Amino acid sequence: MSMTSRLCATTSILAVLCGFSAAQAQPVRAAADNVTVTGTRETAQAITEIHRIAGGVDVVPDTVFKNGPVQNIKDILGYVPGVITQPRMGDDARISIRGSGLSRNYGGRGVSLYYDGVPLNTSDGLYDLFEVDPSAYRYAEVFKGANALRYGSNALGGAINLVTPTGRDASPLDARLDFGSFGYMKGQASTAGVSGAFDYFGTLSLSQIDGYRQHSNGDAIRANANIGYQFSPDIETRFYLAATSTNQRIPGEITKAQALNTPTAANAFWVFGDQQRNVDAFRISNKSVLHLENTEVEFGAFYTYRHVDHPIFQYLDYTVDDYGGFMRAVDDRQIGGLRNNLVVGANIHNGVLDTDQFANLPGAVKGALASSMVDTSTNVSLYAEDSLYLQPNLALILGMQYLDASRDRRDRFLANGNQSGNKSYGLWSPHLGLLWDVRPDWQVFANVSRSAEIPTYDTNPFSTPANSSLRAQRATTYEIGTRGREGIFGWDLSLYHSDIKGELQCLATGPSTCAISNAGNTVHRGVEAGMDATFPVSVFAPDDSLAFLAAYTYSDFYFRRDATFGNNELPGIPKHFLRAEMIYKHPSGFYAGPNIEWAPGHYFADNANSLTVDPYALVNFKAGYDTGSGWSAYVEGRNLADKRYIATVAVTGFANAASEIFNPGIGRAVYGGVRYNL
Predict the structure, then answer these.
(1) CA 20 to 30 Å from 114, out of 8, 130, 282, 568?
(2) Whole-number Å distance between alpha carbons of 428 and 444
(3) The dihedral of CA 210, 216, 221, 225: what is its sign?
(4) What domain range includes position 484?
(5) What is the band of 457 on the pLDDT scale with cuts at 50, 70, 90?
(6) Could you read off the pLDDT of 398-445 as tens digits, one per residue?
(7) Whole-prediction pTM
């Protein structure tokens, strides 16, 4: 059995996804041995490549997340163990992997997000999700923790790469209409084709939502396209285009009592200022690939423009111009009778953030200028990773990344003093791992890795002497794990322990405030466990089955002998988090079953551990019909018991009952959709 064919079954989450979608996906064949696997050839190749990594990784194919409302990124990542996705409103959510970005409520950090290998993060490290269209992608790659060296990323949370189809693996027409509670509607259509050496893919989606909460309505138009040309079987180039226009009102955080008693209400101050986030963005990139005898070379360049109109506590109006390039070479050959796989690469990601900040007058009206600045970021990363196969099934992996970065702020508004400044960073991050193929369908891995994270501009590193001394967050992570399949049972298990120095955290002393500082020593450790099993039942048909899927995440994050917080737990996400589903599948294409989301036990909202977030359990149910082509339909009920719960917390140093730091979860909702796929 080849690596391509067996690894669809190696990771438990992926295994059940492949199994669940067997009636929905077009089969492809692994070239080496003609073994049939589900999904497209490109998806199978992504699975093969990602499982050369000796650590926690996953590939989520679109045959899973496109059988539902695909409203936000949680619909893609919901069953990946170790990934906590907490929706706020509309398309927006907070992503935390292994405790990354715990202090972020708006604008993510600690995870490197990519479209087709091109950075979504701004050049200083921040990202948001308003540009993400979950219905546009062929699959998503998830690299947890320091396992994202393949993209030159070394953030604590790792990386997520959202990959669009091409004309060679997409249908000529794929159209869908989704609708549901709280005024949700979304239409999406794509087309693809091949003409000789050319191929093309394009998709357009339009969505709107009134929102569960007051003042949370939004709408979006998103387009993605790519055009490829094969000069020969060994040389290909591809251009990628993306354009987005989103408008989203923000209901704001409220107290815990308000979130649980009147969850649909918005924060009155946010309504008074008509707080919102409106983004217009455009991205163009090119990627070319050369296949040599033993080496594959990939290189390209990108440019991204964003204009953000963002009235909040003040009226922010800023543009982002990001640009860069990348090169990656993979050499696979025999050296001294041993297989050796060498990866080397370089990334350049530079950008300019031009910001004007005004007083926000009632009704989102620009008042007097309050600040004006130009922030310039440069980032050059070099990385290499070598996998030497000491035995045909045992690889020793050595890697290293170096990041050279600078941050330069030029203050143009001097009425409150000159807050200009600059800072440079040079950061080394080594990696050591072992990957053992115990059997063709069973892997064991271990690694120790370093990671680094530079403060983003919104931490205001140049405004005060204290903040100008902010250091990069550094972590050393130890990880062991296994993934595999035995008969009808599949598993995916990772255990990790991260010792962090200078974690970027909210250490403020006032309620409901977040001033970023470097914490002393902190620890993030946890368990990421996925499992699946598919049982033949033969009740209603000879080939019907019952599929079980579960993803469990244990997160134990705490200060270590901190001068203020002692050994307190770090706030923001549940210690235990479980998602599980059981689906009956009929060979005709009908499927139905319940699923749950469960966060047992309290967790904390502040570093002082003085205010807790209550446990919750959500009961959901979905049913649908899908044969993989032609017409399909679904209906899905979420939070059927109408449980009131906290979805996200804007963490702080010290909180009390009056702290407005909570976002309530969405109440009972029903969604439905129809799809036509040639």
Answers:
(1) 8
(2) 27
(3) negative
(4) 3-677
(5) confident
(6) 999 999 999 999 999 999 888 898 899 999 999 999 999 999 889 999
(7) 0.91
The SS3 of residue 41 is helix
| Alpha-carbon gap, residue 342 to 348, rounded angstroms | 21
Total of domains in the chain: 1
pLDDT for the residue 71:
86
List the end-to-end C-alpha distance of the chain, in Å, as a whole number.
31
What backbone torsions phi and psi does residue 134 show, to the nearest 5 degrees? -60, -20
Among 350-354, 485-489, 663-667, the least confident range: 485-489
Contact 498, 525 (CB under 8 A): yes
What are the residues whose beta carbons fall under 8 Å from the beta carbon of 244, sequence distance 6 or more?
130, 131, 133, 220, 221, 222, 223, 279, 280, 281, 282
3-state secondary structure of 63: helix
Mean pLDDT, all residues of the chain: 89
Angle CA 379–153–494, to nearest 5: 160
Strands (E), 565-629: 576-585, 590-599, 603-604, 612-613, 616-625
Q: Which helix (H) or strand (E) holds 297?
A: strand 295-311
CA 67, 116, 28 angle in degrees (round to 5)? Answer: 55
Q: Which residues contact 414 (CB under 8 A, 6 or more apart)?
A: none
At 106-131, the pLDDT tens digits run 778 889 999 998 899 999 999 888 88
Residue corresponding to tokens 């080594």: 430
Measure the CA dihedral 253/255/259/263, to 10°: -60
3-state secondary structure of 147: helix
Reported as type and span, the H/E element at residue 20 is helix 12-20
Q: Which residues contact 76 (CB under 8 A, 6 or more apart)?
A: 60, 65, 70, 134, 137, 140, 162
DSSP 511: B
Do 419 and 466 contact (CB within 8 A), yes or no?
no
Neighbours of 383 (CB within 10 A): 23
CATH number for the domain harbouring residue 557:
2.40.170.20
Q: In which band, very low, low, confident or very high, does the pLDDT at 581 lie, cut at 50, 70 and 90?
A: very high
Output the CA angle 331-333-335, nearest 5 degrees.
120
Looking up tokens 């033949």 gives: 536
Alpha-helical (H) ranges within 457-522 are 465-468
The token duo for 420 is 């200009």
